[in-house]
Amino acid sequence: MNWFLHQIRFVVLLVAWPSASAQPIDWPAPPERTIWLAAAHESFGDGQTAAKPIDASTAVKLGQALDRLAKEHDFYGDGLVLQFLPGEYETDGIRLRPRWHITGDGIGRTTIKLVPSARHRKIKSAYHSVISGGWGPQRLAKRDFNNIRIADVSLDCNWRGMKKALGSILK
Fold it and tell me: Where are the alpha helices (DSSP H) in the chain?
């Protein structure tokens, strides 16, 4: 009996081996539109160039800019690259949309920090994140969340600040 089980394991391993190895994939091309954002800059603009980035100097301004961009793209558009210039950004949470790429200037050079807001106190949940994906279940709406990337940024969950502001809500 032991010999028989050994033979079965050998056959299963032989059949499964090719599918168990890493399969190379072609990454989808990044979205064509790039939007530049800055926490501090000499002058701000529409974000079409690094010289005139969108003002993201506060959590409110960053949130408003991202909400506006999501609406402009009808929430499920062709996507865009959000290029964060070096600096420390504050957010009460970024909701990624399909085909959005969040890119910074490098780990330790671009930091996105979670800060408490009225929304956090209102929902009274221990679940808060710097970056999350979308609104609700997307498969039911026949929408995808393909081609999402987050690169070259540091994410600061700000545990002490969130705990101080929200108290016993956070565990």
Answer: 2-20, 59-72, 118-123, 159-166
Task: Give the pTM.
Answer: 0.74
In this structure, are residues 91 and 135 in contact, taking their beta carbons and an 8 Å threshold?
no
pLDDT tens by residue, 77-123? 788 999 999 999 998 888 888 888 999 999 999 999 988 876 666 66
Domains of the chain by residue range: 30-134+144-169
Torsion angles phi and psi, residue 89, rounded to 5 = -110, 145
Q: How far apart are CA 45 and CA 56, in angstroms?
A: 11
| 117 to 53, 63, 90, 114: CA distances (angstroms) | 24, 11, 11, 9
Strands (E), 56-153: 80-84, 87-91, 94-96, 100-103, 110-114, 131-133, 149-151
Q: Under 8 Å CB-to-CB from 11, ≥6 apart: which residues? A: none
Write down the residue that tokens 């016993």 correspond to.
168
Q: Are 78 and 125 in contact (CB under 8 A)?
A: no
